[in-house]
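Bumping with the actual sequence this time:
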Amino acid sequence: MAALRKLAGSAAAAAALHSPLTPPPFLICRRGIASKLFVGGLSFCTTEKGLSEAFSQYGQVVESKIMMDRVSNRSKGFGFVTFASEDEAEKAIAGLDGKVLNGRVIYVDHAMLKSSFGGGMPIARGPPEPAKEN
């Protein structure tokens, strides 16, 4: 019985956390706690340190991350920069979007939430099976 009370209490607490009055977590990130930017079009020779230095002129960079290919261990040509505040991120977007970094034009925008691709369906391999006639 005590376990049911505890479960009911935790369900009520979870419902209170996701009430219509509290904003969803992705809005909290976009409203001032931290703001993550997507940076596309990076040169393969751009390092995380270089990316951080380029963006630090617009505010406090919390983290810079360049996405690497697992097999070749080479840059995929895009990365993410996290700023301490939304205002700094907006200044970085205005100042660096469409500018040249290490010989390549970079594109800067707010990072989107990660979405699942394919809906869990496996990728088809080979030709389709012929239709069976009845």
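The tokens above came from a reply further down the thread. Helices lie at 2-17, 25-33, 48-55, 86-96.
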